[in-house]
Write a structure and sequence with these properties.
By secondary structure, this protein is an all-alpha fold. It has 2 domains: 5-289, Fido-like domain (Fic-like fold, Orthogonal Bundle); 292-396, Arc Repressor Mutant, subunit A (Orthogonal Bundle), CATH 1.10.10. The protein is built from 18 helices and 4 strands. A hairpin with a 6-residue loop joins strand 3 and strand 4 (370-372). The longest helix has 25 residues, at 265-289. The protein starts with 18 loop residues before the first helix and ends with a helix.
Length: 397
Amino acid sequence: MYSEPHQFEPLLPAEQRLEPLLSKAHDLSRLATTLAGSTVPPELRSLLRNMNSYYTNRIEGQHTRPHEIDQALRQDFSKDAALAAKQRLAVAHIEAEQLLEQRYRGMEGARALYSAGAVQDLHRTLFGQLPAADLLTPEGEPITPGALRQREVKVGLHVAPTHASVPQFLSRWASFYGGVRRGEAALVALAAAHQRLGWVHPFLDGNGRVMRLHTHTLLSALGYTGGLWSPLRGFARSTDRYYALLADADSLRRGDLDGRGNLSEQALIAWMDYVLDTCLDQVRFMAGMLGFDSMKARIEACLVFEATVVKQGVRQESLRALHYLFLSGEEVARGDFKTMLGMSDRGATDALGALVKRGLLKSDSPQGKVRFGLPQHALRFLFPQLWPEAEADAANV
């Protein structure tokens, strides 16, 4: 059984094998930095946070339907106890993600994330929001938020380090990866750090969620996401590969050509390559979704559908005003929005009310400012294939 930190070496591949990974990290850094600087409506970031919760829980086989997450956010929980528990977990992830992004910001936040204390903080922030009845492993053992495991565990074929040695392994994990601070090298390191944190398996339960929260929060702290993308969507859309490569990187060294550590260097490289490819895919997809030239046409298609099929008062003449709100990412006074519509006062009032009713405008109070809205039923027009499950769900609710 593992008890010495050298047993999970290599923590990174040898320098001569890093170049292809650094090349991908360079592309990711350039594209992600540009995307993160985009101006978007705040509702988009909220939607993506909900989507991240859906996908990370789906990876664990405990997901709820998108509209059930929406209901839970309105404190409308199912009467089915098992479903209500999954809804609470979904809400906990949404709130934890937001809190952690605020807590760990910039280079200082990124450095802080590489510590045993931060790993425990992630676990505590997520699971500390749940009632005691939800804090049980599948075997019925109690989960203490933030507490390192106090017994031995086996995950698949992998026998994790002894519980007594977990602090030593976490200390080595933190000091090594925390010391990699150059831009592209830091991206390569975080891919490896994700896997090696799972190898240590510091908690009795919730390790996968904490690993993904760590990677997500670290990318945010390094300035690469701006709340506009996450690898969680990509991991969930390739779950079998995610788990297979994650487990394969637990493997022992495979002969003299497989690095110099105790574990397989080739398998670690394959895992890291997958993580960087997944991140690049998500950045490129989201950059395409935010193409401003096509956005106007997508808003127009949504309005045409609303006006001609739904027929609940939404007017096609709202296009210019809605497009402005999307591009600016701002809130505007209701009077200013009505002026942009170019209608009579009565007509503009009715049109605004219809947009609010259908969720295409959002406001925090009956007379408050309005901003661009992103209801799930409009996703198939505004952001097609971003969250296909929510599109399908909205069509059936």
